[in-house]
């Protein structure tokens, strides 16, 4: 429900030590909000959506829901950690393990990185070692229901051990590369904002890899006290606009 995407108590994150069971610098919130760079509306899903797979010597392919249904199904129950400092606990994702898809494709041996792209223009680059982990899914269900648009439906890349900016919403393309490609947003204004954040190339939560250049503890306050309230509020307003469309 849209009303669950905004709770006043989650607007400002508590200070102090991280609670037991959470990575350093994280604070638990009471609900799982719509969050990201698409503050206006969620993108319109094509009538027959598919995910394009390309690169690293493989023949370009398009996977639809029927194609993905032929792969083994997996469940991952995990916390979701945002680089802005909040964590939503015990989310249950269902989908296809990315590693199973990768092994089916048989890409060239020199592949080192994977770039995931969303219909909203967001892109994330994962080191192949991270992308092939046991907790990395192409997810289409959340907590027993079809993945809603505000959380990235119909498909979302979910990498539970990395910050949320690696879990690309509205997944529409997966590219394999032999060197690190650009992760710049495909739209100008969000791209400029994300360049300031300088996302870490790996973004592993337990190593607190938040920023590419600046030590994590130096950006915690700015992320939690400034970036989070703004993004939290704008993302909720965007959810309302999507529902009214």
Question: What would your notes on this structure say?
Answer:
23% of the residues lie in helices and 27% in strands. It has 245 residues and is of the alpha+beta class. The chain has a single domain, classed as Sulfite Oxidase, Chain A, domain 2, CATH 3.90.420.10. The strands form two sheets. Strands 1, 4, 5, 8, 9 and 10 form a six-stranded mixed beta sheet that branches. A five-stranded mixed beta sheet has the order 3-2-11-6-7. A hairpin with a 4-residue loop joins strand 4 and strand 5. The mean pLDDT is 91.
What CATH architecture label applies? Alpha-Beta Complex
Termini separation: 16 Å
CATH superfamily: Oxidoreductase, molybdopterin-binding domain
The coarse silhouette is globular
In total, the number of domains comes to 1
What profile does the largest beta sheet have? Answer: 6 strands, mixed
Strand % is 25-35%
Rg (CA only): 17 Å
Residue-averaged pLDDT = 91
Which structural class do you get from the secondary structure elements? alpha+beta
CATH class group: Alpha Beta
Instruction: Give the uncertain stretches in residue-range form.
Output: none
Named CATH topology = Sulfite Oxidase, Chain A, domain 2
Helix content: 10-25%
The count of strands amounts to 11
Order of helices and strands: EEEHEEHEEHEEEEHH
* Count of helix runs: 5
Offer a few descriptive terms:
245 residues, alpha+beta, Sulfite Oxidase, Chain A, domain 2, six-stranded mixed β-sheet, five-stranded mixed β-sheet
């Amino acid at each position: 429900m849209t009303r669950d995407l905004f709770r006043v108590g989650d607007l400002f994150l508590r200070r102090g030590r991280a609670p037991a069971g959470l990575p350093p610098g994280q604070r638990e919130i009471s609900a799982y909000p719509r969050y990201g760079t698409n503050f206006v509306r969620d993108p319109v899903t094509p009538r027959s959506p598919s995910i394009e797979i390309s690169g690293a010597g493989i023949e370009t392919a398009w996977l639809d829901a029927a194609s993905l249904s032929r792969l083994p199904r997996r469940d991952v129950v995990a916390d979701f950690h945002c680089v802005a400092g909040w964590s939503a606990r015990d989310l249950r994702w269902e989908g296809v393990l990315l590693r199973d898809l990768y092994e089916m494709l048989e890409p060239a041996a020199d592949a080192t990185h994977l770039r995931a792209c969303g219909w909203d223009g967001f892109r994330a680059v994962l080191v192949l070692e991270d992308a092939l982990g046991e907790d990395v899914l192409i997810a289409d269900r959340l907590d027993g229901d079809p993945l809603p648009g505000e959380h990235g439906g119909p498909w979302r890349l979910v990498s539970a051990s990395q910050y949320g900016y690696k879990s690309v919403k509205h997944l529409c393309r997966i590219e394999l590369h032999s060197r690190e490609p650009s992760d710049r947003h495909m739209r100008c204004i969000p791209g400029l904002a994300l360049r300031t954040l300088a996302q870490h190339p790996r973004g592993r939560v337990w190593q607190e890899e938040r920023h590419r250049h600046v030590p994590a503890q130096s950006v915690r306050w700015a992320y939690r006290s400034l970036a989070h309230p703004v993004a939290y509020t704008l993302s909720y307003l965007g959810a309302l606009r999507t529902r009214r469309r």
